[in-house]
Amino acid sequence: MATVKPFLMFQDGNAQAALDLYFATFPDSGMLQVERYTQDGLGLAGTIKVAVFTLCGREFMCSDSPVKHNFSFTPSSSIFVEFDSVAELEHVFGILSKDGGVLMPLDNYGFSQRFGWINDRFGVSWQLNYAG
Question: Topology of domain 7-64, per CATH?
């Protein structure tokens, strides 16, 4: 059976800092396995070669790319998170939007009572929605 996991590629050795922020922000989140670059590797020693982690119980993968690319994350691919409370949504929106960019401020857009879309400081795009 095949499996599917979203994969996040970070540049400039930011994967660990991003994961630290996400693990501190979302429940049921943490590292499952990680392999780091060594002195003999292509990437900067200590950065993430490949990691498997969970956010809200869902598995993801990520890496720090040793190759410099002319692209980064784009909002056309985002992580959609539904919250059980407006207070929790607003709290996470505040954390993830700090030093990032707001694409759609928290508001009632008709399809949702409370919705916001942001890019965090690492460039990862998040759609945050109140499920009520």
Answer: 3.30.720
Backbone angles phi, psi at 22, to 5 degrees: -65, -40
Is the pTM of the predicted complex or chain greater than 0.85? Answer: yes
Domain-by-domain residue ranges, the chain?
7-64, 79-130
10-residue stretch averages of pLDDT, the chain, 132 residues long:
94 96 98 96 94 98 95 94 97 98 97 97 98 86
| Beta carbons of 16 and 62 less than 8 angstroms apart | no
Q: How is 40-93 classified by DSSP, letter by letter? A: TSSSPTTSEEEEEEEETTEEEEEEE-SS--S----TTS-EEEEES-HHHHHHHH
